[in-house]
């Protein structure tokens, strides 16, 4: 107020409203001066509420101000024109006038969405006002915010009801929908939850994977849907494959919360066909079969060995390399230019890991031949090296002759 006058004095109320209700605070502004009339006041109240009427006049201080309390107001009984008088100690007075309007607040009938809606269905709910003085404005909100722009969603308001329609339900339409009705007296609202059940769809579709022996690996299978789909893994058993077996969490396999099948340390016996299935009883279940291949790089389970032979005699040095075939094995000795050729043969460990055993035959041994002999192994997935330490001792005959 840039230029305060006596007429500006009185009670001021600040009101805050949202869809959940309203709050208010009232404070007095006192402007010194004699009693003075204000413009007639139009006051709208809610039917059935208690109303406190204070004579709408200005001036301060006032020795007598007329007030009136109406409880449980009714339009037929209490609506209409009221007049009152206020005076000060000097005997000056002023008349105030107001017109009381009593309105019925909006009251809506409860509504709800069908509980069996699935993606692709159509749906409609009606927000119907069973009482309340017109005109009434009706609006819709979703999850506390404005109704999103969507070609599949439409609202239509008539005089005392509003239709909310969905022409093609999708997962994005799931949420809480609130109907808000307002007239000059009050605001009312009612909310209902829309749940769209959605068949499983792939987020990450399983695919064939190649893993490395003793390294971690995973077969990914992630789906979405509502209710949340249940995911399971099956593995074909036997050769030829027989009835699929359910995969459970063990030392070798772990079922992740997101649906992936995790292998902490891949072993050869884990190689095979796996199937991921996901279902939530909506639509057709998802199913995808993939193959896990376990690649075993060349490696030596024993990196160092000792061998002893007698001078003039013969010895066979042996090394065993494991890994996927073809597996190439060769021998070498530091400082020796010519290549050493060993005899190799394929083998397989009890755990199913393929491998190659190589034997290097040395004869007519001398002390100069003792030392380190290196066995090298390689395949498409890696390489490794082992060493055999050969000690050549003098023969007993050579010792006696010496």
Please tell me what the overall shape is.
elongated
Tally of domains: 4
CATH 2nd-level architecture of the largest domain? Sandwich
Structural class: mainly beta
Main sheet properties: 5 strands, mixed
Number of continuous helical runs? 2
What proportion strand?
Answer: over 45%
Could you list the spans in which at least 5 consecutive residues all have pLDDT below 50?
none
Strand adjacency order, main sheet = 20-28-27-23-24
Q: What gap, in angstroms, lies between the N and C termini?
A: 129 Å
Organism: Thrips palmi (Melon thrips)
Keywords: Immunoglobulin domain
GO biological process, one term: axon guidance
Region (Disordered): 336-356
Please explain how this structure is put together.
GO terms for molecular function: cell-cell adhesion mediator activity. This is Down syndrome cell adhesion molecule-like protein Dscam2. The chain is mainly beta and 402 residues long. It has 2 helices and 35 strands. A 5-stranded mixed β-sheet has the order 20-28-27-23-24, with no helix packed on it. A 4-stranded mixed β-sheet has the order 4-10-9-7, with no helix packed on it. The longest helix has 6 residues, at 396-401. It starts with 9 loop residues before the first strand and ends with a helix. The model has no long low-confidence stretch (mean pLDDT 90).
